[in-house]
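Quick one, tokens below:
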């Protein structure tokens, strides 16, 4: 229990946490960052702003919780036993994020991050590092299974992570959603980059 919890005399209710995260995703999806306020989120969740601030001290911190929730719920725990099917599953999960209600919310945060250093750091920690960690784990397991002929360096994993995230951003702006051929092309490019042999 934190000092804030002790001061309130009771522990935080996880149902309120979930309601606030859901409300935050809805507000971001419907209105974008400009209208994303702690007041709007608390009202949508049927909670007080005081209860929101006990959990997250700013709207950037709340945005970080949204990003972390999306990344942890969808991008972790992939292990199909083969590099190609692991990557296929990673890309499928990325598509699921973008095509669900979470997609516009996450894209709105990423678009705003260029103008907000605090939000940029939060997204680096909660989105970039989550994707990089999962991709690095996939590559590490594939190397251990003998699927990869040449070692994949840390700098390569960095760039491939940026490719994975960047294609999501670019597709949201330039390409119609649901392009299966584009997803297959992305899979084969990733495979070729990781294991050119």
């Amino acid at each position: 229990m934190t000092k804030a919890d002790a001061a309130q005399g009771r522990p935080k209710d996880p149902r309120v946490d979930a309601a606030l995260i859901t409300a935050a995703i809805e507000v971001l999806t419907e209105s974008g960052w400009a209208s994303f306020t702690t007041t709007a989120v608390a009202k949508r969740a049927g909670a007080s702003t005081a209860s929101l601030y006990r959990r997250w001290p700013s709207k950037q911190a709340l945005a970080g919780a949204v990003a972390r929730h999306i990344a942890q719920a969808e991008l972790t725990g992939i292990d199909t036993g083969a590099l190609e099917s692991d990557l296929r599953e990673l890309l499928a999960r990325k598509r699921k994020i973008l095509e669900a209600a979470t997609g516009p919310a996450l894209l709105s945060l990423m678009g705003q991050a260029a103008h907000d250093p605090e939000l940029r750091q939060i997204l680096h920690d909660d989105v970039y590092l989550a994707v990089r960690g999962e991709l690095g784990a996939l590559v590490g397991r594939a190397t251990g299974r003998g699927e990869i002929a040449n070692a994949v360096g840390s700098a390569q994993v960095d760039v491939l992570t940026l490719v994975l995230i960047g294609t999501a951003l670019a597709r949201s702006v330039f390409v119609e959603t649901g392009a299966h051929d584009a997803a297959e092309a992305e899979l084969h490019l990733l495979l070729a980059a990781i294991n050119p042999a």
